[in-house]
Design goal:
Order of helices and strands: HHHHHHHHHHHHHHHHH
Shape: globular
Distance between the termini: 38 Å
Number of domains: 1
Structural class: mainly alpha
Strand content: under 5%
Radius of gyration: 21 Å
CATH topology: Na+/H+ antiporter like fold
Oligomer: single chain
Amino acid sequence: MEAHQFLLALLIILVSARIFGELAAAIGAPPVIGELVAGIVIGPSLFGWVENHELIHLFAEVGVILLLFQVGMETDVEKLISAGKESTIVALGGFFAPLIAGFCLAYYLFDLPYLVALFIGGTLTATSIGVTVRALTDLGRHNSREGQITLGAAVLDDVLGVILLALLYDFTVSGAVNWANTAKVMIFVGSFFLLAPILARLMSSVIQHLDTRIDNPGLIPTTIVSLVLFFAWAAHEAGAPELLGGFAAGIALSRRFFLPFGLSMHAQPAFSHKIERQMLPIIQLFTPIFFVTVGLSLDLTTVDWSSPLFWYLSISLLAVAILAKFTGAMLLKEPLQRRLIIGIAMMPRGEVGLIFAGIGATAGVFDNDVYTALIVVIVYTTLLAPYLMKQRFRKAQHPIEA
């Protein structure tokens, strides 16, 4: 892609994201749905104005990393920790139920090969933390009890997804699972989550010290973005998704961050507010690019709408994809409305599901019918979940911002 083509593509993405986001808000839907639809409209599924190029994906990756940084900054760590048990139950139930159900459906009912069935189950385990978090944030519910449970579960789900993807990829390439490599990934991921927030807090103290001595209005945005990108890189090197590096950095810079061994590690509220205020325009610029790119990644023209296998498989997988994500939520000792909201919030597959499906397709595991059936399931769950969340919050009589 030439420079002028990229500039035009970026222009179309930003303008369409704004237009469709406003249209979605005008009809009472979460703006994220409009941004996802914008990607479908301007991408190969409809008009084909924008190519699904690697450079655009890089900008989108920065967008979701910054979104998770913002969520981390706004997260009440004590609430997140207090929801740890419930988050673990939701994550494990929402991970293993679709994995097992998807595998059994594909292998026993549709008589698909063993590896294909495993990849189908793996694709259904995914939860798009980006879509879920954005929907909760749009509704002003990310710091609610259900929001904290969902956030913790989505983070754990992402980590489990990375481990499963590594296992499946090894199995596809070599016909066997490299357990030593898997154990190494798990150790690195665990070490990252233990050390990253502490290191980020120490680095932010240095930034805060510099801010009091250097009169440069661009100091905070430059240093904070650099810090976030560093931790995204560190997360990748540790074997975790890059966006979790942004989340860890945000947690460490949160006004509510604490460590048991020293009150001096607390962030000063005024400094945290200053970071939030100066980072917000950057986050609002990059984040829509990510959601439009999710829509761009879908090519609905490849769907063979006349194939009976496609229809039977997509409807069956859709039922599993929706119902299985409620498994963990229904095991909680919480009010029914809260459990339903958590189950819905874990539903969208988004970019994570697309990664699983894409690797399965490029590795030659999926044929076109299976691949397109999975794409339809990913599209439907990603678009449906934010709308259902808003309706469920209304029914539960929670205060919601339009």
